[in-house]
Write a structure and sequence with these properties.
The chain is an alpha/beta fold and 172 residues long. Helix content is 35%, strand content 15%. Helix 1 links the parallel strand 1 and strand 2.
Length: 172
């Protein structure tokens, strides 16, 4: 029974300044690195699942998204935690960059990113939880069959503690 915590990025791991595509625009949410460490120490896998329409809008590249996600993972390792894997969706149906203009089953509220990670890591939805800051995150969790928790902002560590203490049989 492997347990997994799925975290949205903007608004959960970092302050959402709108289209954050580089370290210079990245500000950690209070308690974010500590929350990843806490989940890691509790034996949970930790994943990031993030819509990145900034790529589709031409604000930054997929390489920039991957570089920033790798840096986030490295910073979490330095704090004693681990980001086990991540998925991002660069597509948007109204993209200004034509190559990224399409509907995608990975774009939340669709559950594609979550389902792909569950398949790749052989996970059961009842042992997974999603933390996001938008209704689309909660819809993706529901459609993937896992618990969704709407993060209101503030201290992510305190919020993660309550989520991880919730018994798995409360899955939707």
């Amino acid at each position: 029974m492997r347990r997994a915590l799925f975290l949205d990025r903007d608004g959960v791991i970092n302050v959402d300044h709108g289209y954050v595509g580089s370290r210079d625009r990245f500000d950690w949410m209070p308690g974010a690195r500590e929350a990843v460490r806490y989940a890691t120490e509790a034996g949970w896998l930790v994943f990031i699942v993030t819509n990145q329409s900034g790529v589709a809008r031409g604000f930054y590249t997929e390489d920039a998204v991957r570089d920033l996600l790798a840096w986030i993972a490295a910073e979490c390792r330095l704090a004693g935690g681990r980001i086990d894997d991540f998925r991002y969706c660069p597509f948007h149906p109204e993209a200004t960059v034509e190559a990224y203009r399409r509907d995608s089953d990975w774009r939340k509220p669709a559950p594609g990113m979550l389902l792909d990670l569950m398949r790749a890591w052989d996970l059961q939805p009842k042992h997974c939880a999603m933390i996001g800051d938008q209704p689309s995150d909660m819809e993706a969790a529901l459609r993937a069959g896992m618990r969704g928790h709407l993060f209101p902002g503030g201290d992510l560590l305190a919020f993660v503690r309550t989520v991880l203490e919730e018994p798995p049989d409360t899955a939707r």
